[in-house]
Amino acid sequence: MSPTRRAPPRRRTTERRHVRAAAGAPKFARAVYALVRAVPRGRVVTYGQVAAILGQPRAARAVGTALYHLPPPLKRIVPWQRVVNAAGRISIRGDLMRPDLQRDLLESEGVVFRGARIDLRAYRWKGPRQERRVHLTVSVPFDGAGPAAGSRRRGQKGAKRS
Question: 117-118 and 113-114 as β-strands: parallel, antiparallel, unpaired?
Answer without folding.
Answer: antiparallel
